[in-house]
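worker-3 :: picked Serine protease inhibitor
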Amino acid sequence: RSINEWVKHHTDGKIEQLLSEPLSSDARFVLLNAIYFKGLWNTPFHSASTFKASFFNAGTERVEVDMMHGQITAGYARDDETNSD
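worker-3 :: tokens ->
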């Protein structure tokens, strides 16, 4: 099995491709790390409020991705000592 197949299997399909290119033929040891997190939002997003928008990878490559949108009332703090809001 390939490394990508192993990662896909062990992350329940959440990570399908960890390596984008084949390893060189002289590679003897590979150390990889893959993790995914499943958590709950304190304020859930509604799937109807998710739509495509532009995202810039490293500021250069533009890709269309799903963006979650929502609106909440949130407090903020002011700290005069550090002159920050």
